[in-house]
Specification:
It is built from eleven helices and 14 strands. With 308 residues, the protein is an alpha/beta fold. It folds into two domains: 219 residues, Rossmann fold (3-Layer(aba) Sandwich), CATH 3.40.50.300; 65 residues, Alpha-Beta Plaits (2-Layer Sandwich), CATH 3.30.70. Helix 3 packs across helix 4. The longest helix has 16 residues. The protein is elongated, with a radius of gyration of 23 Å.
Length: 308
């Protein structure tokens, strides 16, 4: 459905996207992750036809985004980071406005708008001005606006920023419905739990390059973060924790009173770890064996330093 081949985009001397190649199949729910400034939004903007790549090609539904942008726009719905709505219009008026931009007849646009507002449980506020809506309600209208022309592909860039838990849960449910209907979704977010719940496949982009791509299990195998031994201590002794860390080198990560030990063989690695803790006089409160989650994999592949 989406074929990206070697796209590049620079802004002055800054290379935002550096040779990204990716294929997303029809009906796939694809998560695109990366640190701040990694190139996620630039990639979404290229797919949305808002930016032209400096090199490479993108085909959406068989159409070239540069030469056949009009055809591509009919296939895609875009949910940008910033709300693409008008505060001084009602929810209904906002959706009709976007429907008319896609050359939908006014009566049909009104019918579809009401349908979308019902889906998002906002039909009781159809005539209320958008400026009276909460942040979560506005986000729901924003997604509805992207779906008004019934696109086959939904491009979502941080769609749940500032959304309350109830609205976020409802958005998850509706996106799962869209996915079940065969709509292709590309989803960017900093919320790792969202991606784990929603996405069938995940791409990690860093410094403008796609550094890993696959299912969660495939990313675990790629990063080497298959399992974690997690030890919580009763008494926090930073100097002894550091001694423990040196003993087991890069396999150990320490945060507060919690130690995480990456392992591919729990049976072989757990006894010496426990033995060394005992030697150092560290009192263990709890030991757990966990599969590496997406956050652990992400930090392993991109580094732990925050970038702004």
């Amino acid at each position: 459905m989406i074929e990206i081949r070697g796209i590049k985009k620079a802004f002055g001397k800054t290379e935002a996207v550096r040779g990204v190649t990716l294929t997303v199949s029809k009906g796939e729910f694809f998560g695109l992750l990366g640190p701040n400034g990694a190139g996620k939004t630039t990639t979404i903007n290229i797919l949305s036809t808002l930016l032209k790549p400096d090199a490479g090609t993108v085909r959406i539904g068989g159409y070239d985004v540069q030469r056949e942008a009009a055809q591509c726009k009919q296939l895609i719905g875009v949910v940008p980071q910033e709300l693409a709505l008008y505060d001084d219009l009602s929810a209904m008026e906002n959706l009709i406005f976007w429907g008319r931009l896609y050359n939908i007849k006014r009566a049909d646009a009104a019918e579809r708008s009401l349908e979308m507002l019902r889906l998002f449980e906002l039909d009781h506020r159809r005539n209320s001005l958008l400026k009276t809506f909460s942040g979560g309600m506005k986000r729901r209208v924003n997604i509805a606006a992207a779906m008004i022309h019934r696109p086959e592909i939904l491009l979502m860039d941080e769609p749940t920023v500032g959304v309350d838990p109830q609205s976020r849960h409802q958005i998850y449910q509706i996106l799962a419905q869209f996915s079940a209907q065969g709509i292709t979704i590309i989803y960017t977010t900093h919320q790792m739990d969202e991606v784990e719940k929603l996405c069938s496949r995940i791409g990690i982009i860093d410094h403008g390059k796609l550094i890993a791509c696959g299912t969660l299990d495939e990313l675990r195998a790629f990063s080497g973060d298959s399992q974690l031994i997690v030890v919580t201590f009763e008494n926090i002794q930073p100097d002894k924790l550091e001694m423990l860390k040196k003993k087991f080198s890069q396999s150990v990560k320490i945060a507060d009173d919690r130690l995480s030990f990456k392992t591919e063989n729990v049976a072989a690695d757990l006894p010496p770890l426990i033995s060394r803790c005992t030697e150092l006089g560290l009192i263990i409160r709890h030991v757990a064996i966990e599969r590496a989650n997406l956050e652990t994999i992400f930090l392993s592949l991109t580094g732990r330093k925050l970038r702004e």
